[in-house]
Amino acid sequence: MLELKGIVAGYGGTTVLRGVDLLVPEGSVVAMLGANGAGKTTLLRVASGLLPATGGQLVLDGTDVTRSSPHQLVTRGICHVPEGRGVFPSLTVQENLILQSLRGEEKRAIERAVEAFPRLGERLSQVAGTMSGGEQQMLALARTYVQHPKVVLLDEVSMGLAPKIVDEIFDFLARLRNEGCSLLLVEQYVTRALEVADYVYLLNRGEVAFAGEPSELAGEDVFTQYVGADIGH
Ligand SMILES: Nc1ncnc2c1ncn2[C@@H]1O[C@H](COP(=O)(O)OP(=O)(O)OP(=O)(O)O)[C@@H](O)[C@H]1O
């Protein structure tokens, strides 16, 4: 279980997160929703160690990992698929996968990635930066998958992609979950996110405005107030 306790964080003199408490129980999918600028990306960056919290604690399976580096957190099983994907554009698909896999497991890693996204199998020697946006996103997700993560932090992974690709991505998220992974999902497709989520958090100006199960959100004013009807498709 990943626990964020009273997280305070920001950039320079600006505080963005103002004491956020959030739980990602083992094997569950948690959707984090909120308007633009609410602090969702910032929270994922704290959870992956990219942005140090100035207050609060990050706890993984009972161990305080607040001061751990991003690399240490990856080793402990926290993987981050950032906005903008984070693949190495000048390397091939295969090289991207090998770089991310555990030593000695390279062959198995490629098999696993191709099993999840057959399309990547047809493109192993293609330079990642020349692939379509959807294919690059598949690669970004596959890179995470080959690390056998415990918790995956996903930042708008379906943004700007065709509906068919979005379907494939959501199938992949279901696969991750079925393998026992926990997911913390920031997603613009609110309805889809709520369909897969066990728990939902609404973030508003760096504070948790709602935490509960998706079914509890029905009829909640807080939803339209903080998420906005414009992204509720
Ligand atoms: N590197 C940065 N330096 C300074 N301020 C930043 C930086 N990154 C984000 N911010 C500010 O922090 C606030 C929260 O941003 P964040 O990206 O976490 O929001 P978000 O909820 O993910 O929004 P969006 O849905 O638009 O991605 C915003 O006001 C943003 O301008």
Architecture overview:
- This protein has helices at 40-47, 70-75, 93-100, 106-116, 118-121, 133-145, 163-178, 190-196, 214-217, 221-226; strands spanning 2-11, 14-24, 29-33, 55-60, 63-64, 78-81, 151-155, 182-186, 199-204, 207-212.
- The protein has 10 helices and 10 strands.
- Helices cover 36% and strands 26% of the residues.
- With 233 residues, the protein is of the alpha/beta class.
- The protein has a 6-stranded mixed β-sheet, sandwiched between helices. A 4-stranded antiparallel β-sheet has the order 2-1-4-5, with helices on one face.
- The site of adenosine-5'-triphosphate has 11 residues, from strand 2 and helix 1.
Q: What's the structural blueprint in terms of helices and strands?
A:
Blueprint: E1 2-11, E2 14-24, E3 29-33, H1 40-47, E4 55-60, E5 63-64, H2 70-75, E6 78-81, H3 93-100, H4 106-116, H5 118-121, H6 133-145, E7 151-155, H7 163-178, E8 182-186, H8 190-196, E9 199-204, E10 207-212, H9 214-217, H10 221-226
Parallel strand pairs: 3-8, 3-9, 6-7, 7-8
Antiparallel strand pairs: 1-2, 1-4, 4-5, 9-10
Keywords: Amino-acid transport, ATP-binding, Nucleotide-binding, Transport
Domain ABC transporter: 2-230
GO molecular function: ATP binding
